[in-house]
Amino acid sequence: MFGFNTKLDYKGVSVHVQTQDMGPSAQYIESLIYVAGKLASSRKSFYTHLLGTPQSKTVIQRIMEEQHGTIIREISEGKLDHILAPNGKPSGQGPEG
């Protein structure tokens, strides 16, 4: 399986984003977001409608690149802070919430 892996430090948290084509039998692209080594979220894009088309490999590759890039951008823009925060608490909140 072909894919992308990006490791980054975001607000002091170790984040790893892994995106891969799960293959024609599964017919989807999956991105996994790990926070401090633990799976925090996933995202899937199905491509059943592309199978058998002349440009399917190229289009699937582009979808994979776009999905991975979108997740990295969403992290950097703070759109996934609710997933990335330690103990499930948004940044800047104390124990009392």
Describe how the helices and strands are arranged.
Elements: E1 3-10, E2 13-21, E3 28-35, E4 38-46, H1 56-76, H2 81-84
Antiparallel strand pairs: 1-2, 2-3, 3-4
Give an overview of the whole structure:
By secondary structure, the chain is an alpha+beta fold. It has one domain. Helices cover 26% and strands 35% of the residues. It is built from two helices and four strands. Strands 1-2-3-4 form a four-stranded antiparallel sheet, covered by helices on one side. It is elongated and about 45 Å long.
Order of helices and strands: EEEEHH
Residue windows where pLDDT falls under 50 for at least 5 positions: 90-97
Radius of gyration: 16 Å
Distance between the termini: 42 Å
Short note summarizing the structure:
With 97 residues, this protein is α+β, with helices and mostly antiparallel strands.
Search tags:
single chain; 26% helix; disordered C terminus; 35% strand; elongated; 97 residues; 2 helices; alpha+beta; 4-stranded antiparallel sheet
